[in-house]
Each structure stands twice: as C-alpha cells, then as structure tokens.
Amino acid sequence: QVRGIYLTGTCNNNIFSNNIIRENELTGMRILDNVFSNTIINNLFYSNGTGIEINGDNIDYNTICGNTMFGENTCIIIYNGSNENNKIYRNLLRDSTSRGIYLGSNAVNTEIYNNVICNDKNGIFVTNSSSALIYNNIIYSNSEYGIKFVSDNTNGINVAYNLFFSNVNGPTNGSNFITWSSGNIINQNPLLDINY
After folding, report:
1. How far apart are CA 9 and CA 11, in angstroms?
2. How far apart are CA 19 and CA 63, in angstroms?
3. Do residues 114 and 134 make contact, with C-beta atoms less than 8 angstroms apart?
4. Which entry of 36, 101, 157, 184 is 20 to 30 Å from 134 by CA?
5. 149 SS3 class
6. Global model pTM greater than 0.70
7. What is the spatial distance between Cα 196 and Cα 68, in angstroms, rounded to a whole number?
8. In 10 A of CB 90, how many CB atoms?
9. For the chain, what percentages of helix, strand and coil (3-state, to nearest 5) are there?
10. Is there a contact between 59 and 81 (Cβ–Cβ < 8 Å)?
11. What is the 3-state secondary structure (H, E, C) of the chain?
12. Confidence of residue 61 (pLDDT cuts 50, 70, 90)
C-alpha cells in the first residue's frame, strides 16, 4: 500500500505504540497540517519509502521516541511548513539509503537527542531550519556526513555532546551554520552491537 498511517486535521493528543509498520511505498506514517501533541513510541518501521513524514503547517509538540527504523529511504522527515517544538529522541535509525533524519523548511525548535543514527548516507540532513538542538546522539558509519547542512537560511543550530565515529566525509560540513558547543567527541568507537 502507499501509506501505513495518515494523520491530518486536528488529530491531536494520541499515542501510537507497539506497531509494526512496513513495506509502504511512500510513507509508514504521514502527519499533515494542524496536528498537535501526538506521541509515536516503541514502533518498528522498515522498508517504507519514508518512515515518518511530518509535512505541512502547524504540526507542533509531537514526540517521536523509542522507535526502530531501518531500510527506509529516509527514516524521519520534518519539512514544508511551519513546524515547531517537535522532539525526536531515543530512536535507532539505521540503514537508510539517504538520511536518518531530514530537518527541512521552517522546522523550528526541534530537539534531536539520545538517538543512535548509523549506516545511512547522511545521519542528519538540515536545510532552511532554525533553533534546533542536536545533542547526546551517537552518529556513526554514515557514507557521507554525520550531520550535513545546506542553505544559508539554516541558523541557530546547536550541536553538543554527540559522539561521531567513522563518518566518511567527517562529522559535519556546516561550521558556518551552527554553534558547535562543548562535549562533542570525534572518532571514538561507540562499541555498539546493534541487532534488529
């Protein structure tokens, strides 16, 4: 099928947990316009076009945590609208063909923390976003960058206390777009044994 779960238009204050969402052509879960305060927790996503897509205006205060995602084109996308105060934490995002997390147009005050992001093309890809906090993540073995930044409209990104290891082109390309705070660790093996 094309999409597994579709949320739109005042679909608020729900919990989606303990699902297996797989093999959807476009998205495992799509969240579109005016959706607030949902929690997506402890699900397994695999072999979808995109795992979770947040796309549109006023998609705020949602939480994505405790999920395992692999074999997607991109695991999590937030873009194409004014989306504020969403949190992405404690997820395992691996083996995507493009990006672990895509943070796109007008995503504001997104927090990305305590995730393991590995074996993707770019671990986190950021463009036209502002005021994001990226901290306490383990980002390793990505075939381009740990975090890739594109566009001069990207600003106010704070990167702190992350561990980067064995990202082919380095931890990041984006020193002009970010605040590289203290506590980031470069090229220390996390010694993780991750199984599906």
Report:
1. 6
2. 16
3. no
4. 36
5. strand
6. yes
7. 8
8. 16
9. 0, 50, 50
10. yes
11. CCEEEEEECCCCCCEEECCEEECCCCEEEEEECCEECCEEECCEEECCCEEEEEECCCEECCEEECCEEECCCEEEEEECCCEECCEEECCEEECCCCEEEEECCCEECCEEECCEEECCCEEEEEECCECCEEECCEEECCCCCCEEEECCCCECEEEECCEEECCCCCCECCCCCEEECCCCEECCCCCCCCCC
12. very high
Looking at residue 111, its amino acid is: E
How far apart are alpha carbons 139 and 127 in whole angstroms? Answer: 18
16-56 pLDDT tens trace: 999 999 999 999 999 999 999 999 999 999 999 999 999 98
Which residue's structure tokens are 């729900």?
14
Residue 175 token pair:
């020193």
Residue 26, H or E segment:
none
